Amino acid sequence: MKIILTLFTLLTTFLALAFFFPVSIGSSRYVDFTSPSITIEQRGGELSLKVSDDLNAIVSVRYLVQQSGETQIEGEILHEASPLLNTHELSLDLGTLQGSLAEGAAEVIVTAQDAAIWGNVFRITAPITLDFSAPSIEVLSQQHRIFAGGAELVLFQAADNMSLKEVWLSAYQDKIFAPFKLIDAYPELDLPERLYGVLFATPRGLAREKFQPTLHATDNFGNSTERVLSLRFEEQAYRRTSPKLSSSFLSRKIPPLVKEMKQDGYLAAQTPLSDLDGFKVVNEQYREKLVGEISTAMEKAGIRADIPTQHFQRPMAGTLTSRFGEFRTYLFEGKSISTSFHDGQDIASVVADNVRATAAGNVLLAEQLGIYGNTILIDHGAGITSLYGHLSSFAVQAGETVNQGDLIGQSGTTGLAGGDHLHFEIRIQGVPVTPIEWWDPKWFQDNIEQKLTKLLEPYTSG
Asked: Are 460 and 186 in contact (CB under 8 A)?
């Protein structure tokens, strides 16, 4: 009797100590009275679980989904896990429940068991939302036509039965164009949230087989849909030119630009370069870095839902010289030394002629910009920006708002310019396009104005 009483006392003491001070018995199991912990988070169409135990491995995680108070489906996420792991990050694809459950509210019950001798169990219940329907996309504008090196506006509607997450247009390679909501562009009209517009562009020289503009939409549950656009696309090859460089031009222009590259950290300070080698570095490497800076300024501005209401005007009087879409092979003493693309339209006039804003907008940048010289960048809304390079002086500064025709500067020879002229660009979400389209009243009417007028007519009449 004393032996039994002694054993009982020892066992009771042992269990009490184990409860307050758990200890190991064996290599993988513990005398453990603490249940596992579970955290649940729904991330769209996925249920993220974190299951952990302070002392023991987790050996089993099961789930049960109820809807309208009835058990609909159950399963196991984890079974016989490694005895050395006591924390697991798990996931359940809610899309796998399609066919067994209806869309809408549901409840999930998750049960976890650890590897303690008596298998501690913890159970948690959480509400979830199920959505198996993909968003819808419908193209509303018609007669889409675009040239390589040109732009096009598409109007469409995108909606979801629950919550739309993201809408975009893919065009070629990895280039994506962001749309804008028409309700943001026309707040005075009672427009539905589902109406969108997207202005997109293609680079000069793009081959037809590489171009497939497609609208995409995803919802917060991971459902997605896409719609390939039907349009007429016309290839436009680069114009090939061969500008000749002189020793006097190189000695006058290249040393200060190389110095600027070094000051900007784009070239090591100790790098020795001849004027000829310096031209190649400036024309290719520096140009690429500067285009990156321009793109960064545009990205920071975002896509304002502010659509121009009329065609753009030429920013300066004069003669159109070097044209958009040239592929230049620079020659020195008959030999090719460098190549580059000409992304704008050059205009030559009298020295220091007035340069005016091509359209209303916000000045993003007004500063010296390497090969572009004194440069102004203006955001016109809808992803459209204009660039004015080689200026001799500024009449505006970053942060100002300008109207179409406002004086913004004077033409000059700054940067890599050989003579006084204006280098003018229009970019659509960073992609350079021909300015000629935007200066043409007929093109603007057919491709921008009429599409918007037709779509908005039901909301403006009466």
From this structure: no
